[in-house]
Amino acid sequence: MPGVTGTRVPRDTAGLSTAMGGAGGPASPLPLLLALALLAPRVWGGSCPPRCVCASNILSCSQAVLSAVPSPLPRFTAVLDLSHNNVTRLRADWAPGRLAHLHALLLSHNGLSFVSTEAFAHVPHLRHLDLSSNRLRALEENLFSDLAELEVLLLYNNEISTVDRTAFENLGRLRKLYLGQNRIARFPLELLRDGSRLPQLALLDLSANRLRGVPVGELQALPAWLRDRLYLHGNPLACDCPLFQLVARGRRRRLSAVVDFQEDLQCWLPGASAPVGILALAGRQPLNCSEAREAVLEAHLGDSVTLSCDTRLRGVRSRHWVTPGGERVLEEGGNGSAALLANGSLQLRALRPEDTGTYTCWVAGPLLNETLYVELLVHNFTLHGPHDTLNTAYTTLVGCILSVVLVLIYLYLTPCRCCCCRGTEKPPAPRDDSINSSVLSATPNHAAGVPGEPCRSRSASTAGLGQNGRYKVGGTPQPPPRHGPKAQRKVSDPDSVSSVFSDTPIVV
Question: What's the whole-model pTM score?
Answer without folding.
Answer: 0.58
